[in-house]
Every structure is written in C-alpha cells, then in structure tokens.
Design brief:
The chain is an alpha/beta fold. The protein has a single domain, classed as Aldolase class I (TIM Barrel), CATH 3.20.20. The chain has ten helices and 14 strands. An eight-stranded parallel β-barrel has the order 1-2-5-6-9-10-11-12, surrounded by seven helices. The protein starts with 5 loop residues before the first strand and ends in a 14-residue tail after the last helix.
Length: about 325
C-alpha cells in the first residue's frame, strides 16, 4: 500500500466570507497562515485560490497568487497546487494565466463542463458582509462551468510547457470518458492524477456507491496502473467519503474549500483541524502518511526548485 497523500484545499472559489466570518481565509496572509498550518499538521499538498484582499471576492490576480505561493514556500515544503478553476464566471484565459507565470508543481485541470450550482448557500446568509456575496451565489442557478475539449487541450499544453503536473478534477463519471478520449488522442499523458470531486450540485452525489462506481470506471477505462487518485467531498459527507477513499486505495483532500465544518454545527477554525482529524482516522486504519518529498515521488512532481516564485525578488 502506497503512503497516503493528504491535500488541504485552503479557500477555493465556492464559499463566501459570510458563511464563516471568523475563520474563512481570504486575505493572502491568512491563506498563507492556514496553508502552513495544514502542512505542519501533515498535509503534503496545499491547493490554493486567490481572493481579493479587500472583500474576499475570487480573483485571478497573478500577484496575489505569487504572494500566497511564495509565502507558503518560505515556511514549509508542501507541494503547492494552483487552481485553474478560479472563480465561477472567469474566462479560461483568466483561469490559466497563473500557471504560465508561476510554473507550479501541480495545477488543477477540470475534466469537463457542468452545471456548477452553489445558489442554495445564499439561503444561509442573513446579513452579508460584502455586497457581492449574494449575487455571486445566486447567479450560479444559471451558470455553466465551461471546460471544453479545446480549453482542456489549451490548459494541458500550458502546463506541459512549464513542467506542471495536472491534477484532473473529475466531478462526474462522464468526465472519465472525456479523459480516456484525451489520453487516447495523445493530449494527456499517463500516468495521470485524478481528484474525484463529489457532492457539488450539478455533479455526482457524494455517496459510497458513487465513489466505488467512479473508481471502478476509471480503473476499467484508464487502467489501474495508469493513474493515482484522490477524493474530496463537499459538506457533511467529507469525512465519511474520504475515509472510504483511503480504504479503497485512494488519497484524500480536506480543507475549507470543501467543507466549512469540523463536525455537526461546529465551524472548523482552520483547514489544519480537518487535516488532523483525517490523519487520526488514517492512523487508526494503519495508513502511513506521505511527506511532501514522498508525495512528489508518488505523483512525479518536478520539485520546489523549479517553480516560478522560488527565486522571485
């Protein structure tokens, strides 16, 4: 059994500050602090988005991404995964720009288009902190998150040109078929790294049966020797489903991007709390936790020395 890679997704582009006013990180300093905390707790990989420091709105500002990545890099050796999901409604050009400039070890690559609906979250906010939050959430009732074959090809080429490993985000089983086509046509090279993202309204539901179905479909379509995989789940199914994932031989992702809570009705104070919890569960199941160096070897990453912010002034 390979050692378990724990990823912490720190802030994302889904939640808004009003959903967890005291704990949700969006200014660079708190994103860095929480990422470093997650790494110290045992996460080998941290997944980062950028937010506008003034109001927490999702941002594609490369300078903010660079500040976050450099700050994390200076304080820990976790591998950094930069999003190309960005914020909902961003253009593909906005989403991929940080990869070309920052040359991260890992970057997310969404494997298909979908209805990405988070509008029900608006019902949980009575007094928004910022005026953009409710319109942002409500707009997703009529939103398609576009990831066409052409844009996936462009993203893949952008990553290959700077030595960045794609982390392929799989929101539904049809995206595995997309991936098989892209492998068969030479657009994407194996071995691939898959992240099953479950529980988003518009994607596959976060159930044990669906996780097994996704894994078995990938195994048959791609070949079990041709991929490494991980799982994350939105909301209350986070811990139960990723526990099943590790039993099935997968890796796990936690963090405030996916779930703002540490238990029923209890807001998580940080992504590190969730890292600590899943590592306790993993150790009870006799899993060894991968260090950043071991995660780099398992995933075939280029190493910290070759990222774009390593020698930035």
């Amino acid at each position: 059994m390979s050692k378990l890679i724990v990823t912490a997704a720190i802030t994302g582009g889904i939640h808004v500050p009003s959903l967890s006013p005291q704990y949700f990180p969006y200014v660079p300093e708190t994103v860095i602090e929480q990422a470093v905390g997650a790494a110290k707790a045992g996460a080998a990989v941290v997944h980062v988005h950028a937010r506008d420091p003034k109001d927490g709105r999702p941002s594609s500002d490369v300078k903010v991404f660079e500040q976050i990545c450099r700050g994390i890099h200076e304080q820990c050796d976790a591998a950094i995964c930069v999003t190309t999901g960005g914020g909902l409604g961003m253009t593909p050009e906005e989403r991929v720009k940080p990869v070309g400039v920052l040359k991260p070890e890992l970057a997310s690559l969404n494997a298909g288009s979908m209805n990405f609906a988070i509008h029900p979250l608006a019902n949980k906010i009575k007094e928004p902190m910022y005026d953009w939050e409710l319109p942002y959430l409500k707009s997703t009732e009529d939103l398609i998150f576009p990831n066409t074959f052409r844009s996936i090809k462009v993203f893949t080429q952008a990553m290959a040109s700077v030595g960045t490993k794609p982390e392929l985000e799989i929101y539904d089983v049809g995206m595995i078929n997309n991936l098989k086509y892209l492998i068969d046509t030479g657009v994407i090279k194996t071995p691939v790294y898959l992240q099953f993202v479950m529980g988003i309204l518009g994607g596959i539901a976060a159930t044990p049966e669906n996780l097994v179905f996704m894994y078995e479909t990938a195994r048959k379509a791609i070949g079990e020797k041709n991929f490494v995989w991980s799982c994350c789940a939105a909301g209350r199914m986070q811990m139960p489903l990723i526990t099943l994932a590790m039993i099935l031989g997968g890796n796990v992702r936690v963090g405030l991007e996916d779930n703002l809570y540490i238990g029923p009705g209890q807001l998580a104070k940080s992504s590190a709390e969730q890292v600590e919890k899943i590592i306790r569960i993993a150790k009870e199941l006799n899993h060894e936790i991968a260090t950043p160096a071991e995660a780099r070897q398992i995933l075939g990453l280029k190493g910290q020395a070759e990222v774009g912010w390593a020698n930035a002034a």
